[in-house]
Amino acid sequence: MLPSQPLLHAAVFALAVLQALASDTFIAAVYEHAVILPDATDEPVSPDDALALMNKNMDVLEGAIKEAAQQGAHIIVTPEDGIYGWRFTREAIYPYLEDIPDPAVDWIPCTDPTRFAPAPVQERLSCMARNNSIYVVANIGDKKPCNSSDPSCPSDGRYQYNTNVVFDPQGKLVARYHKYNLFRRETQFNYPKEPEAVTFETPFGKFGIFTCFDILFREPALALVSELQVDTVLFPTAWMNVLPFLTAIEFHSAWAMGMGVNLLSANTHNTSLAMTGSGLFTPEGPVAYHYDSETEEGRLLLAELSAHPRLSSSY
């Protein structure tokens, strides 16, 4: 008699945990994604049209996730804006947002999609993680209602956040991070009232997460490293190589070396905006990186990293 699907997933996850525990290393992946962008408009599109665009991008990301899992990756990071792109006003981005709950609710959207408000993007990301037995890191948009009793509540009655989510190999939501340091063009989003220091434990180390522009500020970047002692930082980004000494590869590699942690950097890819440069960076330097200002193709990178870089003999 064949095992049921839930039991099979549990067995695969348990095996992956045991394999990870048996080693002080893990295989990490990042995917630099050439994002399919929406048409520029000040008016909101229909929810169906918004989901159709996001599914086109998730089709590409799902292919990268499957390939990474087949090559033994334990975790994959995808870019900031990788599911819906940019070119948004505050009103125009609203159909692309979902209500993302606190991970404390212990939720697997893939197996329980109707527990909260409709969340087809979270459901699909959860299923990508579950079906491939891999941690999946993605950047999406969160919406939270508010009212006049909150003096900071925007006039449209909602907060909108640039948000990273992490699903574990069972498809459970294990981390949610709201970007705190917004780039000056991100007027479609709000920043949280307090910076969030988001961490989660894995069989292969303690992970922290933040987004793009956050890396230049003490909160949350330095706090994760110096106070919470994470081993690896997950870094979805949409990085433009336009400033001297702030090009993606050199800056992100130097940051990982200076902080003494692994940095898994996944950039969007758009040559017209000088967006490229992803990598798997360690305190000892880059293990794998990609920079391509000529073509419009995405790129998957994988490498084996130390799970606890501060404990390595060469640190």
From TrEMBL:
Keywords: Glycoprotein, Hydrolase, Signal. Residues 1-22 form the signal peptide. The keyword Signal applies. PROSITE patterns: CN_HYDROLASE. Residues 31-307 form the CN hydrolase domain. It comes from the Eukaryota. SUPFAM superfamilies: Carbon-nitrogen hydrolase. InterPro entries: Biotinidase-like_euk, Biotinidase/VNN, C-N_Hydrolase, C-N_Hydrolase_sf. GO terms for molecular function: pantetheine hydrolase activity. CDD domains: biotinidase_like (cd07567). One of its GO terms (biological process) is pantothenate metabolic process. Belongs to the carbon-nitrogen hydrolase superfamily. BTD/VNN family. This is Pantetheinase. It comes from Opisthocomus hoazin.
